[in-house]
Design goal:
Layout (H helix, E strand, L loop, with lengths): L1 H90 L1
């Protein structure tokens, strides 16, 4: 009876080790298969980030230019207004 129990324990241990080896081998295969895909995905994300950053910088530059142009137009109109007011005041 003891020999039967020892044999069952040994068989169980062997089955557990086989299961562990199978899980490790399967994990290695899955990681090996997915690794290049993750690298490609990472490259696409980096490229997308660069493109987005470039678009944002271009947008920011365009907004700064529009703001400068608006400020120049406002200054010019204010100067014109001051000249008109001076002309009106001198007529009095």
């Amino acid at each position: 009876m003891m020999q039967l129990r020892d044999a069952a324990k040994a068989g169980s241990r062997q089955t557990i080790w086989q299961l562990i080896a199978t899980v490790l081998a399967t994990s290695g295969i899955v990681i090996g298969f997915l690794s290049p895909r993750f690298d490609g995905l990472e490259k696409r994300i980096d490229q997308s980030e660069k493109t987005t950053n470039q678009r944002f910088e271009d947008f920011q530059k365009a907004q700064d230019k529009r703001l400068d142009d608006f400020q120049k137009t406002l200054d010019k109109r204010f100067d014109d207004f001051k000249q008109e007011m001076r002309a009106l005041l001198q007529k009095r």
